[in-house]
Amino acid sequence: MEEKLYFPKNFLWGGATSCPQIEGSFNKPHKSVFDYWSSIEPEKFFDGVGSDVTSDFYHRYKEDIKLIKSIGLNSFRTSIQWSRLIKNLETGEVDEENVLFYHNVIDEILDNGLIPIINLHHFDLPVELYEKYGGWESRKVVDMFVLFAKKCFELYGDKVKYWTTFNEPIVVVEGQYLYKMHYPCLVDGEKAVQVLYNLNLASAKAIREFRQGGFDKYGSKIGIILNLTPTYPRSDSKEDLEASEIADEFFNKSFLEPDTKGHFSKKFIEFLEKHNVLFKQEKEDNKIFKENIVDFLGINYYFPRRIQAKESVIEDDKFFPDNYFDYYDMPNKRMNPYRGWEIYPNAIYDIAMNIKENYNNIPWYISENGMGVENEARFLDDSGVIQDDYRIEFYEEHLKYLSDAIKDGANCFGFHCWTPIDCWSWCNAYKNRYGYISVDLETQKRTIKKSGYWIKNFIEKQNNN
Ligand code: BG6
To answer: Over the stretch 383-393, which tens digit does the pLDDT of each residue have?
Structure first.
């Protein structure tokens, strides 16, 4: 007999994407860092495919939103691009045509009976703000972001009930300042810490703007999306545990603590002080953090982080987080070979219990979870449908752990896949496909995969339970 799963009534069954990954860069007044980077160094992107067309959502949003509805989803996260909405980044003057574009997109989402979740930053800093001010290194850029956020609340506040300030802000720190995954590909631990701080501040200030401006009057809520990659030590040895704690502080708690408790953890501050890289802050900041915690969390989960004590000798005396731990290559772990990520569904339960036990059981939802696979054309059947059984199995396993967590008291209100329709991904471009719906890049034709039919059926079953 099939096992009964537990998902509350009104659970958000949905999917997430981001505008820089689907729209194409048509009609934008500014380039984002990825528009710029893929235009100057296309060879850094899989098959040389940049962000100029992507899945052409800019022209096809009506068809796409209808398709998303047709596979049974009830909610959809996308984002608003700063580099599209704002014409004058200094004054916050908007680009009228693009104001209308986002009105049309949000209206289409609502008209299809879907709940929109709108995110304000998905790795898409306008590149000029890096060239001119050093991007997130600068507090001026923090305030410019708040101006952009305020415009979004003013324009769309009566339509959007769930806002999020950032998607995976730690990935901005990692990508731009540590591991060369995002333009300008710097390696600078000290700057990384300041950027981490400024991103936290930008989120708290945008939340303050939301509340002070009374945008919550529509009953709407504001949160943030974090990739809370759970950290597992290799063993119980003191050294492994310490290394694992440092990685957890740097990559998870550095946002989770200020976002939910209004201050950084004592351990994190001591760690930065010890290595002489404590961020610069201004007097009023602590009050801003304290008064502007999130209403809810979006949690992206793909893979766990396995850590062991540092074995190699650190030769460079400059601060770098990885100087204090090593990654542990656990034998026999299950891998997604295309993306190079471990598959470990149990972690969803662990994340849920961590939030329940240590973060006051704040409301949260899975804002991304999914499996990227290369060359899915090999799984096409005679009727032209991709038989992505691996994806169905992946979701079934993750949902089982989520259901167990809910049964055990997790305050989880939704599950969003990454992503309903195949989309462009940063340097991997269209290498790995994640969608319930495929996109043929030659023709832009969309076709529902086996997993798209499966999720529809799965949701119906849960609703009738
Ligand atoms: C998340 C991001 O980290 O993972 C998405 O929010 C991203 O933007 C997704 O596309 C999947 O990762 P990737 O690198 O395979 O596209």
So the answer is: 999 999 999 99
Q: Rounded to whole angstroms, how far apart are CA atoms 383 and 195?
A: 50
CA 401, 406, 410, 416 torsion: positive or negative? Answer: positive
- What is the whole-number distance in angstroms between the Cα of residue 18 and the centre of ligand 1? 10
For residues 357 and 405, is the Cβ–Cβ distance under 8 A?
no
| Token reading at 55 | 């899945």
Q: Buried (b) or exposed (e) across 384-398, using 16+ Cβ within 10 A?
A: ebbbbeebbebbeeb
Give 327's strand partners. Answer: 307
How far is it between the farthest Cα atoms of the chain? 66
* Residue ranges with strand state E in 127-258: 162-167, 221-226, 231-233
- Residue spans of the domains in the chain: they are 12-464
Instruction: Tell which atom from ligand 1 comes closest to the C-alpha of 339.
Output: 15
pLDDT exceeds 80 at position 315:
no
pLDDT digit string, tens, across residues 190-204: 999 999 999 999 999
Taking CB atoms within 8 Å and a gap of at least 24, the contacts of 239-247 are 239/309, 240/307, 240/308, 240/309, 242/309, 243/307, 243/308, 243/309, 243/310, 243/324, 243/325, 243/326, 244/307, 244/325, 246/271, 246/321, 246/324, 246/325, 247/305, 247/307, 247/321, 247/324, 247/325
Whole-number pLDDT of residue 4:
85
Position 21, amino acid:
Q
In the set 168, 249, 257, 376, the catalytic residue is: 168
45 lines ligand 1 (CB under 6 A): no
CA distance 68 to 15: 8
CA 430 – ligand 1 centroid, Å: 12
User: Under the phi-then-psi rule, with left for phi > 0, alpha for psi from -120 to 50, and beta for the rest, what region is 384?
Assistant: left
User: pTM above the 0.85 mark?
Assistant: yes
CATH class as words, domain 12-464: alpha beta
pLDDT at 1: 53
